[in-house]
Amino acid sequence: MTTQPPVTVRTFAQRLSPTPRGARLARHLALHQLHAWGIPHGSDPSDAVAAVVAELAANAVTHGRVPGRDFELRLSLVTGSVRIEVTDTRTGPLPPAPGAVEQPDLLDENGRGLVLVEALADRWEVVERVPPPGKTVRVEIDVPRWLALVRRLEGTSGSAQVGAGGWPVCTDTAPAPPKPTAAAAGS
Question: How much is the pTM?
Fold first, then answer.
């Protein structure tokens, strides 16, 4: 059996202000990064990631806001999927776990964000922030033809190293793309 070198896990991270503008910028940055990784705008994975990032960022701004503290968006291109992590510093009870999200009543104005996340995610979880305080909502969206995408990015083939909890080990960090302009964040 031939061992192959590990696939580099691409990562993008950005701290954002806990404002509606920060939430919009999170979505724009996510789409920009997916495009840089070769996942085209308008594809199913791109649309799913955009919707999940928008919901999690809105939740971080609405429910996780702590004055003077940012929230963080982290995207990783890991084995077979895009991982989205949104972290805030709010303490208190964690959001419902996967499978425990309740459907809102038909006329309720709130409560649909995690329902949407649960519908779009292939895997997701809520974990305590390390270091405390706060929490991280971690979501994975599978990417069809992921291996071909990674081979294009790397110029090689290989397999990923798997760490604790079955999450791939990050062996490299890609540089962040240029930030969108302020005008793009306002749309």
Answer: 0.75
pLDDT at 57: 96
C-beta separation of 57 from 27 below 8 A: yes
Q: Which domains does the chain have, with CATH numbers?
A: 10-179 (3.30.565.10)
The tens digit of pLDDT for each residue in 61-89 reads 988 888 778 999 999 999 899 999 999 99
SS3 140: strand
Concatenating the DSSP letter of every residue in 9-57 gives: PEEEEEEE-SSHHHHHHHHHHHHHHHHHTT--TTSHHHHHHHHHHHHHH
Q: Which residues contact 105 (CB under 8 A, 6 or more apart)?
A: none
Rg of the chain taking only CA atoms, in angstroms: 17
CB 72 within 8 A of CB 87: yes
Name residue 143's amino acid. V
